[in-house]
């Protein structure tokens, strides 16, 4: 076997680890790289506050002297405590079509899991629900989003050969924005706002949004708490997410809802797609990446990515999602947006998926979290 595994311990190796997918998928039209500084920060202690409850080991695989794969082994202590699991997670699992490479990398995850007395390995899934998750199993020819993994179709056969089985899938939809909103939908939205005392909040000042964002993330944390693999978002994790995203948010595509007592109970954030800008710049900010990103975020852009639509559980049956959708759809129409792409939605989340049945929507991608027992 001429595969060598090296643990990532230096900044130089971390950069190689982060950049490997851009080399692997160099000639793939559907591949979109993550923003390189963000990925480096994600795997740097002292930068990513999720290291307060997570531990990681990063590995590179070399074959014939060249990088041939990478993986991150991740022990999420908060997730194991919340869900009563005894699992080691893996994420950023990329490799050439060579079973010696994929098995050598995955064996490092299993080895560490055994050392820690863990019973299962699962992934791709990361630090929190704000991290990227799910291996692509359908939709390989569709342009990837800026917040999701891309991988080759051959990954599936490698996972199966490694003894991994499906644990759960996420689905993604491409939703066509209608030319106009049904007047009955608007009438119903106004009726619900009046009946339940809801106030729709829009933003023109990022300082105001920054202040409300902490309440918004508390709603997100509560609304998503029952979903697969989620962990409680600490104040530090919330602050990091807010500090990272507020500077680049286009305020037209953000709204929140307060109840009659002034409590924030709903929040939505959609972001102009930066996928093509990231692809053109290979995920780097300099020398021209930052300008391409700003143009995509603030210029004419006919595609949006849905980052969050979250409603406090006690308000989900009171029509609040319809109020948010009415506003966001009208904003899309007013700004020439043609398509909105959802992030990964659990296949079991029928409430969310039922919304897209009333639209011209296409289920175009599927992602999977795999799981296996750790022997011995």
Task: Provide tags for this entry.
376 residues; alpha+beta; 14-stranded mixed beta sheet; 12 helices; 14 strands; globular
**Major beta-sheet overview:** 14 strands, mixed
Residues in helix, %: 25-40%
- Name the structural class: alpha+beta
Order of helices and strands: EHHEEHEHEEHEHEHHEEHHEHEEHE
Provide the gyration radius in Å.
Answer: 21 Å
Count all strands and give the number: 14
Q: What best-fitting shape do the alpha-carbon axes yield?
A: globular
SS strand fraction: 25-35%
Low-confidence stretches: none
Mean pLDDT: 95
Q: Figure out the total of helices.
A: 12
- Give the termini distance in whole angstroms: 24 Å
Summarize the structure.
The protein is α+β, with helices and mostly antiparallel strands. The chain has helices at 11-24, 36-42, 77-83, 99-115, 155-161, 183-196, 206-224, 235-245, 275-280, 289-298, 320-334, 350-355, and strands spanning 3-7, 54-63, 66-76, 87-95, 120-123, 135-138, 165-176, 199-202, 254-258, 264-272, 303-311, 339-342, 345-346, 360-373. The chain has 12 helices and 14 strands.
């Amino acid at each position: 076997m001429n595969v060598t595994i090296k643990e990532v311990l230096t900044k130089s190796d971390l950069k190689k680890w982060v950049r490997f997918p851009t080399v692997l998928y160099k000639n793939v039209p559907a591949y979109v790289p993550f923003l390189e500084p963000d990925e480096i920060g994600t795997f740097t202690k002292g930068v990513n506050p999720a290291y307060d409850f997570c531990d990681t080991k990063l590995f590179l695989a070399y074959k014939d002297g060249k990088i041939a794969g990478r993986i991150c082994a991740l022990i999420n202590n908060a997730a194991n405590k919340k869900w009563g699991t005894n699992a080691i997670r893996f994420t950023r699992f990329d490799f050439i079509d060579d079973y010696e490479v994929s098995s050598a990398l995955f064996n490092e995850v299993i080895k560490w899991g055994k050392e820690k007395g863990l019973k299962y390995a699962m992934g791709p899934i990361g630090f929190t629900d704000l991290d990227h998750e799910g291996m692509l199993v359908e939709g390989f020819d569709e342009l990837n989003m800026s917040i999701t993994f891309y991988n080759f179709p051959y990954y599936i056969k490698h996972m199966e050969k490694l003894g991994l089985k499906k644990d759960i899938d996420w689905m993604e939809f491409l939703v066509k924005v209608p030319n106009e909103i049904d007047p009955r939908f608007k009438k119903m939205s106004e009726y619900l706002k009046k009946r339940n005392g809801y106030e729709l909040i829009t933003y023109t000042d990022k300082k105001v949004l920054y202040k409300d964002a902490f309440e918004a993330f508390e709603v997100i944390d509560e609304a998503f708490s029952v979903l697969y693999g989620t962990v409680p978002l600490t104040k530090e994790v919330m602050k990091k997410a807010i500090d990272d995203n507020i500077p680049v948010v286009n305020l037209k595509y953000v709204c929140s809802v307060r109840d009659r007592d002034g409590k924030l109970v709903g929040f939505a954030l959609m972001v102009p797609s930066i996928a093509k800008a990231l692809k053109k710049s290979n995920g780097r900010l300099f020398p021209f990446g930052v300008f391409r990103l700003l143009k995509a975020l603030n210029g004419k852009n006919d595609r949006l990515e849905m980052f969050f639509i979250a409603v406090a559980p006690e308000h989900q049956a009171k029509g609040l999602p319809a109020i948010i959708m009415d506003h966001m759809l009208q904003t899309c129409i007013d700004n020439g947006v043609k398509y909105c792409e959802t992030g990964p939605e659990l296949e079991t989340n029928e409430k969310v998926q039922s919304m897209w049945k009333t639209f011209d929507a296409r289920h175009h991608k599927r992602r999977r979290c795999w799981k296996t027992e750790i022997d011995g």
